[in-house]
Amino acid sequence: MDGDGVLQGIEGGIAPFELLLAGVGACSAVDVLMILKKQRQTIKNLVVQVEPKKINNDIGYSEYKSIHMHYILEGPIDQTKAEKALKLSVEKYCSVSKALEKASKISYSVEIKKE
Description:
By secondary structure, this protein is α+β, with helices and mostly antiparallel strands. The chain has 3 helices and 3 strands; from the N terminus they run αββααβ.
């Protein structure tokens, strides 16, 4: 764990908010994999890119107005099933995204690489 320059971080670790972003990506990825497996989809690889939109406020710290998660799935996966899995994960099952949605708008998209 590390902080920014204000905290005299040594830049040797992940910052707390980056850890939170990694957590939402991992939480949702597990859900998506489990949902698609139950739907008999073959997933060869999954990458989740989590991109926050930061705004500076008058108080002196940054706020994250929105978070976009882009899922890149590899394999012979049905587009409709993938979209449904993402929706279920982000909007219903992932406890991290449910906690974050109170402070930030969460959006998502999917890309499927058939091979």
